[in-house]
Amino acid sequence: MSFLKMARNGKTDQAVSSALANHFKSDTVKISTAFFKPEFVSDNLFGSVFDGSTDILKKLELANSLDGLLLARETVQYVTNPASLDNVITANMTVEIQLVPITGSTQNRTWKFTAAGAGFSKTEAESNAEDRLTKKISDDITMSLSN
């Protein structure tokens, strides 16, 4: 099994990646957050696979190394609240997670988490949303790699 987390800016979000890797780790499952090179994301191969294309998986002959891919895509939307609320910014963060089968031993699965965080800057609001999101992932009892 491999894992890749893509943030909205095309880079890995380490906090959410770690939360997902820790959630799924077990004695029988190996999760690597560094299986692919950054070009997998920058060349939009990640996006293609996340959106359903399996052509690249066959070309890369991933069946020789992996049972499946655990991919996650994060998006953030910001809202600036009115002056009556001191212009506090709200970050609405969503992470969509997909288990993409490479071999027949894995079934396709999807999960989605959302969280909001507030702050006086986008960075602070995003950090607060990310903290809530990683807690939701850690506490979730429905996400599983087993069939």
Task: Give an overview in words.
The protein is an alpha+beta fold and 147 residues long. The chain has a single domain, classed as Double Stranded RNA Binding Domain, CATH 3.30.160. The protein is 30% helix and 29% strand. The chain has a four-stranded mixed beta sheet. Helix 1 packs parallel to helix 5. The chain starts with a strand and ends in an 8-residue tail after the last helix. The model has no long low-confidence stretch (mean pLDDT 84).
**Beta fraction:** 25-35%
Low-confidence stretches: none
Task: Give the beta-strand count.
Answer: 4
**What does the average pLDDT come to?**
84
Give the number of domains: 1
Helix/strand order:
EHHHHEEEH
CATH architecture annotation name = 2-Layer Sandwich
Distance between the termini: 14 Å
What is the count of DSSP helices, taking H or I runs of 4+ residues? Answer: 5
Approximate shape = elongated
Strand order of the largest sheet: 1-2-3-4
The SS-based structural class is alpha+beta
Query: Quick one: CATH class?
Result: Alpha Beta
Radius of gyration: 17 Å
Largest sheet: 4 strands, mixed
Task: Determine the fraction of residues in helical runs and give it as a percent range.
Answer: 25-40%
CATH topology tier name: Double Stranded RNA Binding Domain
